[in-house]
Amino acid sequence: MSEPILEMTDVSKRYRTFGGFGRGRGGFLAVDGVSLHVERGEALGLVGESGSGKSTLARMANGLVVPTSGTVRTGGQDLARLGRRGLRRLRRNVAMVFQDPLASLNPRQTVRQTLENVFRAHGETTSTAELVTLLESVGLGAEYLGRFPHEASGGQLQRVAVARALALKPDLIIADEPTSALDVSVRAQILNLLADLQRDQGISFLHVSHDLAVIRLYSDRVAVMQRGRIVETGPSDEIFRSPRHPCTRALVEATPEAEPPPWPAGALRDADEACHDHDHVSPNDHPVVSRPEAGATEH
Amino acid sequence: MSAAEIRQAEGRGTPALRRFLRKRSGVAGLVMLVVPLVAGLCAPLLVWIEGQDPSTLHTDLLDPDGGRPLGAFGGVSADHWFGVVPVTGVDLFAQIVYGIRSSLFIAFGASILSIAFAAVLGTAIGYFGGWFGAVAGRLIDFMFGFPGLMFVIAIMAIVPEEMPRGLVLVLVLAFFGWTVPARIIGAQAGAVNARAFVEAARATGAPPWQIIRREMLPHLFGLVVVLFAMSLPGNVSVVAGLSFLGVGLRGDVPDLGKLLSDSLPWIYSGADVWYMLFPGAVVFLIVFGATLAGDALRDVLDVRTEDAA
Amino acid sequence: NSQSSSQSAEPTKDKNATALESVPKGQTLHYLSRRANESFETANAQMVPTSRLRWVHRGLTSWQTFPDKDTVLVPDLATDTGTTDDGGKTWTFTLKEGLKFSDGSPITAQDVKYGIERSFAPMFQGGLGYHKTLLVGGADYDGPYDGKKLDSIEVVDDRKIVFRLARPFGNWPWIVSMPAFAPVPAAADTKPETYGERPVASGPYQVTSFRKGSQAVLERNPNWKADTDQVRLAGPDKIVLDMGLNNDTIVQRLIDDKGADKNAISNALISPSQFQRIESDPSISNRMANSPSGYFRYLAMNVKRPSLSDVRVRKAINYAINKAELQSVYGGPKFGGQITSTIMTPGIPGRTEYNLYDGGETGNVDKAKELLTEAGVSDLKLTLTYPTDVSAIEEKEAQSIKNSLARIGVKVELKGLDGDTWFELISSGDGDYDMTTNGWGADFPSGMSTIQPLFASSEIGDGGGNASKYSNPKVDAAIDAAVAEPDLGKAATMWAAIDKQIMEDAPIVPILVQRTQALAGSKIMNYFIPAYPPFANELVVGVGS
Amino acid sequence: MSDPVLQIEDLCVSFTSGGVTADVVRDLSVSLDGGRTLAVVGESGSGKTITGRAIMRLLPRGASARGRIVVAGREMLSADERELRRARGREVAMVFQDSMSALSPYLDIGAHIAQALRLHDASVTRRAARARAVEMLDRVGIPEPADAVRRFPHEFSGGMRQRAVIAMALVNRPALLIADEPTTALDVTVQAQILALLRELQQEYGMAMLLISHDFGVVGSAADEVLVLYAGRQAEYGSLRDIFHRPAHPYTAGLRAATPRLDARLETGGRRTRLRAIPGAPTSLRDAGPGCAFAPRCGLADQVGERCLVEAPLPTARPTSEVGGLHLAACHLDRLPAPQEVAR
Amino acid sequence: MIVYIARRMVTAVFMLLSIAFVTICLFFGASKDPARSMCGKPCPPETRAKVSAYMQTDQSVLWQYTEFVKGLFAGRTYGQGAQQVHCPAPCFGYSFPNRSDVTTLIAERLPVTLSLALGAAVLCLVVGIGLGALSAIRKGGVVDRFSTGFAMFGLSVPTFLVGLLVLQVFGFMLNALPYSGFVSFSESPADWAWHLIGPWMVLSFILAAGYIRVTRTQLLNELSADHLVAMTARGASNRQVNRHAVRGVMVPVAAMFALDVTALLGGSVIAEKVFSLHGLGDLLLSGVNESDLSIVVGVTLFSAFLIIVGNLIADLLMPLLDPRIRRV
Ligand SMILES: Nc1ncnc2c1ncn2[C@@H]1O[C@H](COP(=O)(O)OP(=O)(O)OP(=O)(O)O)[C@@H](O)[C@H]1O
Ligand SMILES: Nc1ncnc2c1ncn2[C@@H]1O[C@H](COP(=O)(O)OP(=O)(O)OP(=O)(O)O)[C@@H](O)[C@H]1O
Ligand SMILES: [Mg+2]
Ligand SMILES: [Mg+2]
Question: Which positions fall inside the ABC transporter domain (chain D) (predicted)?
Fold first, then answer.
């Protein structure tokens, strides 16, 4: 088999906080020495509790987040060596789909402008016909070109977001919880769309989700994260059939099934302790009351 | 705000201009601002129509003992639409329309300069964040330590005479005017920068300039316009206030603030209250108009300016 | 054989001379001052001898003013107004007998000398300092605080003091009326910095309470004897001096004339906006003092500038100025001032009226143009500089001059500068300006006090007041002679001649003799402004009931 | 049998804005007994929250409710302010979706619980109230409760906050608890704990619970009865088992088929499966025409024809497997075809 | 918390020193010679040089700065021997025309400005928060309309116009208020207030506008906040909810107030001029008019000091108002 489309070796990310004159005290270690790879044509599912570093890890794949240490090779290129221009060129081949379609589309741009900007970013131009083809490939009609985000539903917007991801014919799509903001009835539509892309166009996927059922359905392999580390990886069937790490087990058991008998309360709580501790308050929970000094993810 | 409301606010439901024109207070404000503005721009024409000029003294129109304008309403007549200035008999209308020029020139200059700088810096703070944002934040904190008006007064007192005072005023006002807007824009730009669609654009490989230009600026534009509209009346007031304190413009350039401070003794004594009325009304019109218009703009563009200080 | 230096009018022994009313003893006088830094320090004061400073301090000589006569110099602490026997180079004064400070100690010649010496200290700069360059060794003297003495002031005995001048100076008796010549007992000068807040008094009042910047209260000095003092009436029992009030507020209060303000006088300036109100109400206008004469306003032309070096151009400008308009700008003939064509102002001995360039009150445009053509000048462009922070008037004055000159085709560019910068410019040797407006008030009533500082070539540059850069050796010689002349009557005629001699060269355009006005409360008596100085005599003011 | 704790009859909620009045909830009738849990499911905007708030008479500005709501014998819609105040918090309490914004940032956790207590019983001293707060925190499983009462909301993790909110809601032992998506913002593992806790406390206190959720999984593990809302209308109502095993409304069936399940692969023998998605996007009552709101997305509407587009179906009784159970569905079709045929 | 306080203090001192540096560079580097006005009449160059040396204005800017900073902590001496004047620490410079150290001058004027500023601050906070809260609670009502209009006026009308209006109407026309003068609080609290009502009205009219707006918007936000809905759900009455909502307004109000210390000082310059009060602003203007650089620099820096202290207090107050800021 050829080189993996994505290969991360021992990557870590420490977020620094700014304030006062000095540096923040140490910062927060969001990803801690993770190694992982995605083969070409493969869909890797990344699961884990909130704040475990899934999004951070996923964003390191296309350089949106720069790792504090470790190497990331995407499409055979070492991101650290690419430089800013190189990184931008790389992003032709690595597209992203985000959680909230309404938020990830600029409310002041029409669908056409949104799509055109992708080409513009790489100095290219497109024809309307191309754009229409693109929209049709995600199941939308040409009439959507002139619409603003608020003129379309969540599911339609997520299709637009997928179209944007597909615009430059990427090899790898990073999907960060692409369906968790969608209604149940629509969620299935998008998941089906992504699955078709993987099958028909051979696009590789890094699929982040906290919904095990979703991962199970659409991923070839699964990586389970806990507090910045990957605690277990393997083919998804295997992992879900016989989870080895207590955390994975807790996750699997906690996932509500469609129709179990009434909840076995006591049993569950013991299992959880392995994965989640009450006192862990992630920095996420701190409201940002101080003066806004938003951190950049790109340097 | 619900998602629907956000959609409403940010979307292009109706163009901002149309929504603005639907607001009565905003349109009234705009008119109040624009009429004096146009009068100032067309000063030579208007004064020519009136048949006067801003420098000829008409001592014959004054009470020889003390120089109070003869006639009612401070000497209002067909020749002198707003009457004449006490002591010199200079045409008040000409003084005012030319005065609007200098006052508004300074206020506009200062507002444009300070808001432009604030916009650039604020966008940079929002875009780069990190240590740049931290340093810029400190700088703004530092600027907040300056006792604004007092410092301006002090500076205006030591301006070397070679420098044109109008320009110095513009610079000084701009120097103290950029901080709050920069912080507000910075906060807003930071918030925009943190929004998912900006990250999405980054993920498509868009270059920084495209991100700023196409993703961030459209979301900051309204704020910048509103901040500009809000800084304008403040600057007009300060320019007039400095003249009132005797440290404003000098020389024979007509200036609204100077007219006002000149008129003080005349209202103190009740000898010619009209002298204050006309320039006072014009200053009030400009300032109040700009405030109304700015406020309406803020509503229309749905910009929040209160919470970033 | 001493030569009296007194003036034409003999000082009267009778205090209540001519129109002066006798004032009752008692009551409280209120003084409303617009100045915040009022003090009773003499070493750096710039005030005339008829001012409130002299409630507390006496000098060797002083001034006596009358509503209807010229001001005269009279002895104060001294028995006479000084004697010289070498043509004005050495002056001798003798103190009256039995004079005492408020603390009971006798006033001696030593105290006078010490008071003068203090004024040389760098910490006390800023006062009227004519004596500093006149006294031998004055230029290098730095005051008594480092133990040095000024030997040109000789204390012969407790009552006799002799001054040795570097050159003959006929007006010395006037100089010794200035603030620095008040006696200061060295023993009391332990904290020079604040001495002026509660000085040892030689005058009829002593400071009993002093709050810097806000209020001073003066009460009677028991050791002052009325029979030794011919200039102070000392009517009120108590004087309250309120400092740092807003000028307009003071005027308003005086107009309103309520409560204690009925007993008040002030140093507030009345702006033209008030005239109408005052005029229209006799109960107010009766309380207003208007000066018959006052400051000299003129337009100085920088004769060093090529464009103004031709006397015909300067004469043309003299003809062109519309003085009537300027008079109007200053508030008209009644409140603003009198149009003038001479340098010396009424009230200065020797002043004679003449008009070399009579263009009528509004100017003679034709004559002016004629002179310009004669000089072969066309398209003349000149700058006119003026101070902007004194009052708004300067700017209007400049505007009027600009308009006047526009009539004869001279383009004027106005340059308003702040006071300090303006003064710096016109008092420097090579100031870059063509014309400036200026005003001048004499520090003592003599042609010397106006002509010498404004027209002597020694006054060009280095802080001198010769704004026209006028330099005429003949005039310089005449000035030197007049300055030295101890016979002031003779000197007066000499000054009159110099006045005209200068105007022949037309370095300036005399414009106005500016009037000043002052208001007093309704109970105030003896409130008037003499021809010179243009201030009310605060020492004779009384409070009626 | 005693009276139901909650009884809703013909509830309509409408919003008025700019002179236009629009219903967002229409003709809702349901009743709930003590000790039982009714899950309200439906997609975003279907009116779940509005229904919950209508019960407490906590509607946003511009909203008005008609119909009848009876909680523990009290008519809520006609109650006056004082009565309402007495009912709120004591007879019916609420747990909000976002625990962070539901807690005042300025009060510590203890003060919140104490306040909830003292609002209804002024005789409780401050000290006693705080002692009760410690007890309650202990009861909901917060470690070191004596220390925790002094902490502020932002110092708690999401799960702990939700526990605190539950403690606050239950401190007055209400007859009815309305839990509006109490676990949506939480991790799966925490979600399981919270649901278990709610269930446990419900049994202990014998209260009725209205559990609002959009997640079929949550519903399946926590409810006794289920109410499926679509565009503000009751699509289907029935016991948990009926809803899951014999859904009578195509929407209910579609939702079930579209929900990914952990055991999905096992069923299909390890091959990749596709979910059966419901086409289109959820509509709100406002946008709905006169007919069945679900008709535009319904794969079976063609079978019925015109009627679906012109006439809104009323809930009618359907077969049930429970003894004495009630199963209602609002569909013109009497019987659903086999699952494979439901979705297009 | 202690670390936080200490850090804020260090920052404040550092800021003051930097502002002093900028100020002194600017003013002592300027082309004006303070010795000019102290030189007297006549003023030959030698005299002027002497004066300049005595006033220490002939030294370099950097020297001025170090002397100034030294003076702040250790006092400063001008001249030698018996002529020397000492300016005790904290020395903000020495004003020769006034024969007084600037610190004393400031100390004399401070009660006026503080009375003016504090009174106006209290008034504008009470009026601003009060009207803002009322208009938020009764949104769209009469009070709301009135105070929105009032705020708009206050925001736009220049301070001196309001001042003159108040002076003209209440002082001169109605004779209802004294038009000038200051009575110290210790002398007679009633007279003190009576003399300051006019300026207070003017300043608070201008400043209240901002608080009305902030209070109104924040309270409206706050009132629709979930935690207040939750409070109602717990059975709290409207009054209890409103009272609690006001807490949420205090933080932005405090933040705004910190910035308004500057505006208060600036406004009091104008109010002092209009009402002829002798406060810091008047001192500054007199310094400007008399070219007394020591006063100009001293007052400016002292005002900076006041502002920084004001900000510091607001910063330290903030955690008390909002526990979320209380971390570390
Ligand atoms: N820009 C940032 N600055 C500081 N800390 C950050 C930043 N971004 C993320 N973090 C922190 O890093 C940790 C991991 O965050 P990340 O977003 O990768 O988690 P996640 O697994 O995606 O969580 P979720 O499921 O909630 O999306 C979190 O605790 C978060 O608070
Ligand atoms: N304040 C409001 N003004 C106008 N319409 C509103 C308001 N709040 C809710 N609505 C409308 O009422 C309907 C029902 O809203 P509700 O909040 O009950 O939905 P929900 O089922 O709880 O959805 P979600 O799952 O998103 O919480 C929606 O169509 C919504 O647009
Ligand atoms: Mg994430
Ligand atoms: Mg909801």
Answer: 6-256
Ligand 1 close to Cβ of residue A298 (< 6 A) = no
Which site among C38, C118, C123 would you substitute to test the E interface, given the most E Cβ atoms closer than 10 Å to its Cβ?
C123
Ligand 1, atom nearest to D187 Cα: 25
DSSP-assigned letter for residue E235: T
Whether residue B190 and residue A292 make contact (CB cut-off 8 A), yes or no, is: yes
| Best residue among A8, A17, A49, A56 to mutate for probing ligand 1, ranked by most atoms within 8 Å of CB | A56
DSSP symbols for E201-221? HHHHHHHHHHHHHHHHHHHHH
Ligand 2 pocket check for D60: Cβ under 6 Å: yes
Residue C298, SS3 per DSSP:
strand
Looking at the complex, report in whole angstroms how far the Cα of residue B197 sits from the nearest Cα belonging to chain E.
26
Answer yes or no: do D157 and A285 touch at CB < 8 A: yes
CA A52 to ligand 1 center in whole angstroms: 7
Provide the CA D177 distance to its chain's centre, in angstroms: 10
Share of chain C above pLDDT 70, in %: 96
Please say whether the beta carbons of B31 and B21 come within 8 A. no
CA distance C280 to A239: 106
Whether ipTM exceeds 0.90: no
Torsion over CA: A174, A180, A182, A183 (sign)? positive
- Give D104's contacts in chain A (Cβ within 8 Å): none
Q: How far apart are the CA of E237 and the nearest CA of chain B, in angstroms?
A: 25
For position C390, what pLDDT does the model report?
A: 56
Q: Ligand 4 center to residue D226 CA distance, Å?
A: 16
Say which residue the tokens 């008829």 belong to: C50
Residues E226-259 have pLDDT tens digits of 888 888 888 888 888 888 888 888 888 888 888 7
User: Of A175, A245, A157, which Cα lies nearest the Cα of A214?
Assistant: A175
**CA-closest residue to ligand 2 atom 30:** D45
Q: Is E271 on the interface with C (CB under 8 A)?
A: no
Pick out chain D residues at pLDDT < 70: 1-2, 263-273, 285, 338-344
- With pLDDT > 90 as the criterion, what percentage of chain C qualifies? 66
Identify the weakest region by mean pLDDT among B91-95, B114-118, C214-218, E34-38.
E34-38
C525 - beta bridge partners? C542
C-alpha–C-alpha distance, residues D269 and D258, integer Å = 19
**Residue C30 pLDDT grade (very low, low, confident, very high; cuts 50, 70, 90):** very high
Ligand 2 mean position, distance from CA D39 (Å): 18
Residues 6+ apart with CB under 8 A from D251: D228, D230, D235, D236, D278, D294, D297, D298
pLDDT in tens, D244-257: 888 889 998 888 88
Peptide bond into E90 cis (omega under 30): yes
Shortest CA gap E22–chain B (Å): 10
**In this structure, are residues A76 and A4 in contact, taking their beta carbons and an 8 Å threshold?**
no
**Helix, strand, coil % (nearest 5) of chain B?**
75, 0, 25
φ, ψ (nearest 5 deg) of residue B5? -65, -40
pLDDT digits (tens, 9 = 90+) for C413-437: 988 887 878 888 898 888 889 999 9
Q: Residue D31 C-alpha to ligand 4 middle, in angstroms?
A: 20
Kindly report, residue by residue over D228-278, the tens digit of the pLDDT. Answer: 999 889 999 998 888 888 888 999 888 888 887 776 554 444 455 677 888
Q: Are A292 and B187 inside 8 Å of each other by CB?
A: yes
Find the helix or strand (DSSP H, E) in which A211 lies.
none
Amino acid at B167: L
Six-digit token string for C138: 């004055």
